[in-house]
Design brief:
alpha+beta; three-stranded mixed beta sheet; 22% helix; 29% strand; globular
Amino acid sequence: MEKGSRQVVVSALQFACTDDVPTNLATAERLVRAAHAKGANIILIQELFEGYYFCQAQREDFFKRAKPYKDHPTIKRLQELAKELSVVLPVSFFEEANNAYFNSIAVIDADGTDLGLYRKSHIPDGPGYQEKFYFNPGDTGFKVFQTKFAKIGVAICWDQWFPEAARCMVLQGAEILFYPTAIGSEPQDEGLDSREHWQHVMQGHAGANLVPLVASNRIGKETIETEHGKSRITFYGHSFIAGPTGEIVAAANDKDEAVLIAPFDLDKIKAKRSCWGVFRDRRPDLYKLLLTLDGSKPSP
């Protein structure tokens, strides 16, 4: 490694989920190993990968899928894998916390240490994506995790549509942003395809903050029985890695399993971010309207 250069290799995984936890865990482990073989240091697995995206329906029995954070079997298994391969793994799971439920991420460092928890802040509610039935709004705030290879910010799916979330993480020192995702077709409108919009928004986060960004999405068609009959979503994949100007440096398609890889020189990116001036010239004193819902003048 060159003096004054911190090289990190990031990876985004993409696969179709079954509704069987052991099968999905085996797939995730196989792809993590494949990413490691390609030199990856930080590897992102998609959102809620243990099973189908169950939020298509409002069903009481689906709460049984949640497990407490402490001693969670999937987290423990991936801690062992992270330690074996010396890789960083953000792990998405459905968390039960007493009488609350969260869409959560545990960040596992390269020695297997659990660095802590992030709970999804923005909870969507619409046809096919009825997450408010299952998840409380996250109470952790936006967090940054110091891993062996980089200081990273991790947020979850719907969080990726909010530039405030990305900026909060980078203000805390995040050098790379990670977004595990589950998004696809809209059951109420087969003609609506949000894929390009979804991608462009995150490219904007990367470019506006001058940091790389990694997005992992699932593929495949999933059918869930709802109170109104069958609901189907075709997940559109297109996982990608963006560079610090928003450029796409690696991308998957909408059908195939994928292991995306991209290297970045974090010191070189930091130098560019420092001289570009977007953090020097910020005016937080003028942004108080962001603390309101309707744009009215906030109270002193």
